[in-house]
């Protein structure tokens, strides 16, 4: 199953240079890298990324991440994918733009 990580382009650029993504500030705080499914990503974008410019969305095949990926209850009791390890940039299958819409929420045009 494909999973998605929304983040500022600058963080993705830094991850590319390092060869791995260690997480955003909230990921460090919670102890894992937050991902969403395609069905969950739009609400995640609206709640946590509204008004933030220059975002990208990483598309990752969850099965490639092994046992470090855990599905845990979160918003509304839904199971969300959480990665308890750095993300090797080689696992990123695609990078999508997430421009802000008129309402200030990132538009996930790939979803």
UniProtKB/TrEMBL annotation:
**InterPro entries reported for this sequence:** DUF952 (IPR009297)
Q: Which PANTHER family has this protein been placed in? A: BLR1139 PROTEIN, DUF952 DOMAIN-CONTAINING PROTEIN
Protein name as annotated: DUF952 domain-containing protein
Source organism phylogeny: Bacteria, Pseudomonadati, Pseudomonadota, Alphaproteobacteria, Caulobacterales
């Amino acid at each position: 199953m494909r999973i998605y990580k929304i983040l500022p382009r600058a963080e993705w650029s830094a991850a590319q240079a390092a060869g791995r993504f260690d997480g955003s500030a909230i990921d460090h705080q919670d102890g894992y890298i937050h991902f969403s499914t395609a069905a969950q990503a739009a609400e995640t974008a609206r709640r946590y990324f509204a008004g933030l410019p220059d975002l990208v969305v990483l598309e990752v095949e969850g099965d490639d991440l092994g046992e470090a990926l855990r599905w845990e209850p979160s918003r509304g009791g839904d199971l969300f994918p959480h990665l308890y390890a750095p993300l090797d940039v080689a696992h990123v299958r695609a990078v999508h733009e997430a421009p802000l819409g008129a309402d200030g929420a990132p538009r996930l045009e790939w979803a």
